[in-house]
Amino acid sequence: MEKLTKNDDGELILVNIVEGMVIQIVDELIETMDMCNCKRCRLNACAIALNNLPSHYVTTEKGALLGELEDIEINYRTNLTVEVTKALLFVKEHPLH
Ligand SMILES: [Zn+2]
């Protein structure tokens, strides 16, 4: 069977880059808001934001840094910040604990 990977270590995987960016932005913004920042609230905010955002999948090698991520991040970041802020406000008003 033909190998799709470059080498034995470079297993190719699918990554939704929006997911990592949303997690990062949630962690940044939650510090600036007067609200609970436990793991449950952070993950709830991530889930709400990700459900309201289009996914953006790329193929990459497992463990590799995403070279093209910076360009995409600039295009997405404003939109992501808006959705993350909305999600955080919702979690603040409706914490699941
Ligand atoms: Zn909490």
**Alpha-carbon distance between the termini?**
50 Å
Characterize the main sheet. Answer: 2 strands, antiparallel
General shape: elongated
* Cofactors, ions and other ligands in the entry: zinc ion
Strand content: 5-15%
Q: Which spans of ≥5 residues are poorly predicted at pLDDT below 50?
A: none
Major beta sheet, strand line-up = 1-2
Tell me the series of helices and strands, N- to C-terminal.
EHHEH
**Strand element count:** 2
- Chain-averaged pLDDT: 86
Helix count, per DSSP? 3
Q: How many independent structural domains?
A: 1
Helix fraction by DSSP (H/I, runs of at least 4): 40-55%
Rg: 16 Å
Structural class: mainly alpha
Topology:
Blueprint: E1 12-16, H1 17-30, H2 39-51, E2 57-61, H3 69-93
Bound molecules: zinc ion.
The site of zinc ion has 6 residues, from α2.
Written description of the protein model:
- This protein has a two-stranded antiparallel ribbon.
- The N and C termini lie far apart (50 Å).
- The chain has one domain (12-93).
- It is built from 3 helices and 2 strands, in the order βααβα.
- It has 97 residues and is mostly helical.
- The structure holds zinc ion.
- Zinc ion is lined by residues 36, 38, 40-41, 95, 97.
